Amino acid sequence: MVDLGYVGSNQSHLPFVTDLNQVPENRLGPNDAAFRPLPFQTVSGVTTDGIANYHAFQAGITRRLTKGLMFNFNYTWSHMLSNQDSSGWGSQQGATPYQRAYNPMANYGASNFDIRHMFKGHAGYDLPFGRGRKFVNTSKPLDAAIGGWTLFGDFVAQGGSPFTPSMQVNNSYSLSSNALWYPNVAGDPTAVAGGQTINSWFNVNAFAAPTPGTFGNMGRNIVYGPGLTAINVSLHKTYRFSERFNFDVSANAANVINHPSFALPDKLIGPGHVGRITGTSVGARQMELVAKFRF
User: How far apart are the two ends of the chain, measured CA to CA in Å?
Assistant: First the structure.
């Protein structure tokens, strides 16, 4: 069975985490505290100026269990835009950066969840050996050893998530503890000499520090990090001694091909920062053997 479809949504009046007392942009300076709208320091709060929209083309193919084989594969091509992702699930929304607290739409750009391409799937196959199957179906010793096994697998291959580079030192004088100082864009962030590597994922020289007391012209989430690939497999068999007593055996492997999927790079712009990646988003291959007696 093949499925094709379009999914779209538009949301408004979402939470926008911000500083309710940021110094106006035309008043920024070394001694601008007196120009706060209220006679306090940073006033962290939430407005309802958050917006988000999502558009996606989805395709999938499914085979229900027939002759020992079942699978489902799906592909999504999508784009999600927002001015902040404070409405994400729990703490998984990622960073909620802003520069102009009083102008949420200046923060409008790719969402933290904006994965442009995503390919996922899972499959199960009853290996054709043993009692009730096509081969080796008459020998009890061989059936006990190699018969009745089922192989499962799932995988994901997707593009990277966007992130927001920011200046290492904030000389905007905005005084907002949660605000970032966005740099000025002076080149192509993806033009990395020799190509993208974990030692230099994006072109840090494409950004320049704004004049102190001004805001940078860069938008939010304009650079994308590495993609993610993972394949997991499991081999399973159930020994049935009676209607009530069963013995399950399974061998499982996570990230079976031991393929490295890297985390987001260092996002800071400043001396000593070169866009280096120092972590992974998927752990190394892990294998386990599980046995369970069920009664």
Answer: 38
